[in-house]
Amino acid sequence: MALLKKIKGSTLMETMVATVLIVVLFLMASMLLNSIFASTIKDDTQNVSARISELEYQYQHGLIALPHYETYNDWEISFEIENMEHEESPRVKAIHSQTKKEIKTNMGVDEKI
Known about the structure:
Elements: H1 12-42, H2 46-60, E1 68-72, E2 75-83, E3 88-96, E4 102-105, E5 110-112
Antiparallel strand pairs: 1-2, 2-3, 3-4, 4-5
């Protein structure tokens, strides 16, 4: 009868420690990804910028009259004429109702605050 060779293995405690380390690393990675995703969603202004461009186009072609106010996806958009240094210039300002993030444009020139 052949003798079985003893195979070196890990103890239960070593296995539990390795498992806990893997779970902790997974939790940290998932929290980091969640944070990145949430900030990306919060800082996304592409839709409102596209709407502002539409409003500027409509104004340039005489389809809307100023002042113009509207609500678009939680954004309060105001399109008015401002007097700047003896010169009238159309200006669009959009404020997010929850985050209070503000976008100002002066007919094509964007300022994000």
